[in-house]
Amino acid sequence: MEIAVKNKNDKYLFVGFLENKRLYNLTAAYWHRMIHKIAEEKQLGFRPYINLYDTHGHKEYDANPIFSAFFPELNKAVRIIQDEPEAEAPDLTYWEDRIELKAGHPTKELVIAVALSVSSAAEAKRLITDWLKG
Amino acid sequence: MASKKHRGRIQAQGGGLEESESWSQDEPITKAEGLTLLNRLKSKLAKSDLEKREKAFEKAERYINNASGIDAVKKKSFYSTRKDKSIRVDIEVLGGRAFVAVILLILAFSIWKLL
Question: Does B71 contact A51 at a Cβ distance shorter than 8 Å?
Fold first, then answer.
């Protein structure tokens, strides 16, 4: 499944986050709050599963991904990749993938590649909520 | 078969394509080995699939070349164009470490032998 969404009259959020570490961290916190709220409503635990640091212990600020969450009770994961908005590009694309966090035991992964706007944030929230239905 | 400590996968995905090359071994994969796997993956693709992912492969190659060892779990998705992000190349480091320079690997092995 690979779906793209674009709303030309949208308001973008956290523009310039790739150039500003403080803004980047606020953006990551935004995703954490969104996913924490969804998980709380569904009484699910989650933890990050992607290492966001390089071998020297420095945090990577490339937003590939900006946030990840593994839900052990469902054996499902969500990975968020964020880009700056681009005129001709869709604001949200998503696909399903698999990742073997444990060898021989694939975990279903929802990947959302997004330029964050009011509309794409709402769509991402809906997709994640649906993904975690069980 | 028991899984090895260092494992991962490079994939060409999206638009109905699902091809991959993986590794599972006792020692970290080197940059050179990683690039060999990337090229092997490229050689498996039809010309049109390869053309669609030309820039994605370039980005993946740059990522491996610039790495100074990457610790699991790491997953990066590279696209040729933001207009179609699902047409992509993914690099997954699922266990241990990957894309080390050979000299570092020799040094680490030498130190381990001395201990």
Answer: yes
User: In chain B, what is the straight-line distance between the N-terminal and C-terminal CA atoms, in Å?
Assistant: 30
Residues B45 and B17: beta-carbon distance below 8 Å: yes
Q: Strand, helix or coil at B64?
A: helix
Query: What is the radius of gyration, based on Cα positions, of chain A?
Result: 15
Q: pLDDT tens-digit profile of A40-96?
A: 999 999 999 999 999 999 999 999 999 999 999 999 999 999 999 998 899 999 999
Residue of A85, A90, A84, A43 whose CA lies nearest to A61: A84
Which residues have CB under 8 Å from A19's CB, separation 6+? none
Which single residue is written with the structure tokens 């050979």? Answer: B102
Judge: A99–B75 Cβ closer than 8 Å, yes or no: yes
| Unique residue bearing structure tokens 């993956």 | B41
CB spacing of A64 vs B69 below 8 angstroms: no
Taking only Cα atoms into account, the Rg of chain B, rounded to an integer number of angstroms, comes to 15
- pTM: predicted TM-score of the whole model, two decimal places: 0.91
Q: Is the peptide bond before B93 cis (omega within 30 degrees of 0)?
A: no
Q: How far apart are CA A21 and CA A62, in angstroms?
A: 10
CB of A93 within 8 Å of any CB in chain B?
yes
Secondary structure of residue B72 in the 3-state scheme: coil
**Is the Cβ–Cβ distance between B76 and B7 less than 8 Å?**
no
